[in-house]
Amino acid sequence: IAGIGQTPFDNSANFGSKGRLIGFTMLPNPHFIDGADIGVAHEFGHQWVQSLKGGVFTYGQPHWPLSTMATGVMGWSDPINNQGLRFPCQFTANDSGGFTVTSFQGALMFNDFDLYLMGLIPASEVKPQVIITNAQKIAAGQTGACSGIGTLTPGQFATATAQDLIQVAGGPRVPSSSTSQKNFRVLNVVLSRDGLLSADDLAYYEFMSRRLEEKGLVPISQGFDTGYGHSFGVATGGRAQITAKLTADPLPEINFAGVVNAASFDKAALGPATVASLFGSNLATTTAGAATVPLPTSLGGVRVIVDGKPAPLFYVSPGQINFQIPDRLSTTPYIPGDSGYVTGVRVERDGASSNASYVGLRASAPGIITYGASLAVAVNASNQVIGPANPARTGETITMYFVGAATLSEVITAGTPAPSDRLVRLLGSASVVVGGLSITPQFIGLSPGGVGLLQVNFTVPNIAAGEQTVSLIVSGVRSNEAKLPLTR
Q1: What is the pTM of this model?
Q2: Average pLDDT over the chain, rounded to whole?
Q3: CB–CB of 389/373 below 8 Å?
Q4: Which has the closest alpha carbon to 225: 444, 37, 31, 451?
């Protein structure tokens, strides 16, 4: 490769990459780049769209002309400096044979033409695209105001098909989508001028590089997007993926949406001090369980880091980890419209870090513990487990267990058992719903001696015998629905 202002050259043969190097991108401000951000997907997309020369696509180079193609990841080219800009518009067919163009702020994805050029879909799946050809409409679109374009009448636009794309590209794509490359390997190189990077610098770039591999929408707070970013894999609709891993050793990896409430397995039901489960691969090299309390924050060479804090661990294995979310974490949203504070969870195994999984922490997140066929874990006054062979009786008081603490009468440090000499009560509103009937509990709070375990004591209402549904409503948030066998 070459420096700014110089002619690029291919030196890949000296590094074992001859015939494998697709292209390179120079990022002048690396601290502005996030691997999960659409800006990185855009630059990666240039390896294909830049190959088009002439025809109906000419004035859009090195991006797309103002068209339905430009509404996606690659955008359109500013005529002054060819910079890629967004075209946040949508085209809606009208009864007169034209299109109405209006503002659109939806997800940025690669369009069908992009996907064909990448080898991710066949020509038969490429839908026709609309290109604005009227000079006045183009000028209006270049201001970024979709409303200025208004209505396109026949004669003000052209329709481009897969055959037009194939003609301009010089023939059908080789190899075709059936055998083309779907997984790409990216090497990120940081050039430092004044000295070697610090450990913190390296950790930052490693983290941002790992986010190239994201398989779903994740929150971002820098780069070209705000809110939730579209990585390359997401922008292709899951048709392709990037790996940024250099080592051949397997790294710990958390499944996408793999951090859930340990009771309900609900990703959205997480709050401070909630007992959670984490699923993935290569998470640990052995299976180990905590033998003492307070719970350890390192077990079998494994740590779980939540919002920068080590979490207490119940159990670790290669595919699953059970842990408790640290207490005193924020639940105030920083992304507008979110119902909670989004934070990162990652696994450290023998010094190797996993990808980050992003979870929303909410002030209230109840999850009823279940067993068997979604039966609620509950006991009667004799401490006998309630089930089909031992149903709860109407009129008796039972205890049901759950996780997902809301505001408590005192803060109990995560990983330590609840006190046995006093009751720690849950503050705020709470009700139990049995068979559709709402009940006020006698007690709801931490279960004495338990770690992250809560209980609710309530009297079974006088309703029909049989298997009834039961759920909790805590501070306005409803839990998962479980089953409770009843007899009269």
Answers
A1: 0.83
A2: 90
A3: no
A4: 37
